[in-house]
Amino acid sequence: MRQVAARALWLGNAGDLRDARAVLAAGIEAVVELADSEPSVTLPRELVRCRFPVSDGGDNAAWLLKLAVESVAALLRAGIPTLVCCSAGMSRSVCVAAGALSLAEGRLLEETLLAIVGAGPADVSPGLLAQIREALGS
User: Fold this and answer.
1) What is the DSSP letter of 28?
2) Which of 49, 55, 44 is nearest to 33 (CA)?
3) Is 121 helix (H, G, I), strand (E, B) or coil?
4) pLDDT at 6
5) How confident is the model at residue 86, as a pLDDT?
6) Which DSSP string do the residues of 45-105 spell out, in sequence order?
7) pTM (2 decimals)?
8) Selecting from 3.90.190.10, 3.40.630.10, 3.30.1330.90, 3.40.50.300, what CATH number does the domain 2-136 have?
9) Quick one: average pLDDT of 124-135?
10) How confident is the model at residue 120 (pLDDT cuts 50, 70, 90)?
11) 120 membership: H or E segment, kind and range
12) What are the extents of the domains in the chain?
């Protein structure tokens, strides 16, 4: 689990959710899971939880990606410390978080993607990134 610099935003993987104490200790109040095949884990009831079945392959429904990105952007605008996670924390979480930052901060997707990639490892799916770009209308 890693924090994106100077933001109430963390990126993580499915394993991070198994350690709810660490999530809570980081001050995180909301978890956004981008799970298409990962099993759901039990989280403490004080954590807000959103789960979107997003895949890396670029075959997601446009409304699903838009809802995921807009949900994370709304949490960020409200100042809610948020963890966005997927299987490995390197593609779906990176793409959706970049899209959300783009909306929340009014910046270009490429800028926010570079800010996130600069915070740690990434393996962005070109198909998913293209879908995020389309969902944002950019």
Assistant:
1) -
2) 49
3) coil
4) 86
5) 92
6) TTSEEEE----TTS---HHHHHHHHHHHHHHHHTT--EEEEESSSSSHHHHHHHHHHHHHH
7) 0.94
8) 3.90.190.10
9) 92
10) confident
11) none
12) 2-136
